[in-house]
C-alpha cells in the first residue's frame, strides 16, 4: 500500500467548467459578454468538441451561460424581469436594470384579418398591426405581436418604433384605464424560435394582454419571451 491516497485527476470537461467559472467570478467575463467559441476552447485546452460542448451545456443548464443560436454563448445576465403590477414600457424596464436596449421592427401595417378585428372588438377594419423584437444587450428577450385600435391611435403607423416603443406612444396619446391578461407556457413555432434565437425544445412564456380606454379596446398584444431568459414578478 502507498502511504498517501492518490488524488483523482480532474475530468477534462470539468477543467473547462472551472476555467469559465473563474473568469465569471473574477469579473473578467461580465453578464452579457460573449465568451470564446467552442473551437477556441478546444484549441486552448486541447480537447474534443464533445468534451467542450458538455462543459458549456452543463453551465447553460445551470443558467450561468446563455447559448444563442447562430450567435454564440454569453455570460447569463440573470433572468430579465417584468412587473405585472403595472404596465411599463420594456425599454424602461431594461434600462432601469442596467441593460442596453434596442428594437427590430418586423411588421407595421394596416390589417383587416378576422383575427385583428376580433382582438379589438371592431365590426370593420382596418386595425393596425405591429411585430417588434426587443433586445437587451443584443440578446432577443421579447417578441411583441400587437393589434392597435386606429380610432384611438390614428397615427400609429407613422411612428418610428426604433425610437419609441408602442407603450410610450400610446400612454402619451390616451392613458389606459384597465387591462386583462393571461400567462402560459407555449412552444414557439420554428420562425418564432429563430427570431428569438432559441434552442430547439425551449418553451416560451407567453403573456396575452388587452387594454381599454374607457369602454373601448385600445390594444391586444401577445408577448413571447424565451423561458430561460425571462421571468415575471409582482406584489401587492
UniProtKB/TrEMBL annotation:
Record domain HTH gntR-type: where: 10-78
Record keywords: DNA-binding, Transcription, Transcription regulation
A Pfam family the protein falls into: GntR
PANTHER family: MANNOSYL-D-GLYCERATE TRANSPORT/METABOLISM SYSTEM REPRESSOR MNGR-RELATED (PTHR44846), TRANSCRIPTIONAL REGULATOR PHNF-RELATED (PTHR44846:SF16)
Name of the protein: Histidine utilization repressor
Origin species: Collimonas pratensis
Underlying gene: hutC
